[in-house]
Amino acid sequence: MGPRLLLVPLGCLALLLPPPGAAEFSPSLDSDFTFTLPAGRKECFYQPMRKEASLELEYQVLDGAGLDVDFHLLSPKGETLVFDERKSDGVHTVETEEGDYMFCFDNTFSTISEKVIFFELILDNMGEDGQDEEDWKKYVTGTDLLDMKLEDILESINSVKARLSKSVQIQTLLRAFEARDRNIQESNFDRVNFWSMVNLGVMVVVSAVQVYMLKSLFEDKRKSRT
Q1: Does an H or E element contain 62, and which?
Q2: Where in the cell is it found (predicted)?
Q3: Crossing angle for the helix pair 129-139 and 150-218, nearest 10 degrees?
Q4: Domain boundaries in the chain?
Q5: Number of alpha carbons in the 13 Å side-chain half-sphere of residue 136
Q6: Of 19, 42, 171, 198, which residue is 20 to 30 A from 34 by alpha carbon distance?
Q7: Structure pTM?
Q8: Burial bucket for residue 159 (CB in 10 Å: 0-12, 13-18, 19+)
Q9: What tens digit of pLDDT does each residue of 145-178 get?
């Protein structure tokens, strides 16, 4: 079974092990997810890891007042490895042990604004490269006659695979940055339009008052005698 992702409701945060049949990540070493975190809520996810592997997690707050959220990363033993308080983004890498790592996004400090959060997981040394090499050995024969080495082929393929994965990761991050910048620009656009209308209304009122005052200065208030 591949790595698992579990979304946990606020009332079940004390549970460190996901229940059977939980939702799963695909076997890919790179996974990303975008979700909406309501005001006053806390959401947690689980990621099973192997011993001596590497877990890299990057997150960004794409939309919401303040563009901030609290972030927690806990080890399988329940120890706090990372705690970010009201940050808009962060990148963390940890060397892992066997077990389920839990990371949480906390928006309980906000009573009104929901947050749109993007995060990406990059898993290294998960033990799949050795299996790939064994699979290649089943199909590659006659390497001595072709004067080629299996190691050279695998090295070239792994190099291409690593560069493609890096390209996908960079494109994903650029999309996240673009989404956050677009949300900020739209918020600023609405704010500018609102205050422009307020200023326009004030100018109209002031102009009307000035016209009225000027007219009152030239009115002849004396009554004619008959």
Answers
A1: strand 54-63
A2: Endoplasmic reticulum membrane; Endoplasmic reticulum-Golgi intermediate compartment membrane; Golgi apparatus, cis-Golgi network membrane; Membrane
A3: 130
A4: 26-126, 155-218
A5: 16
A6: 19
A7: 0.55
A8: exposed
A9: 455 566 777 777 877 877 787 777 777 777 777 8
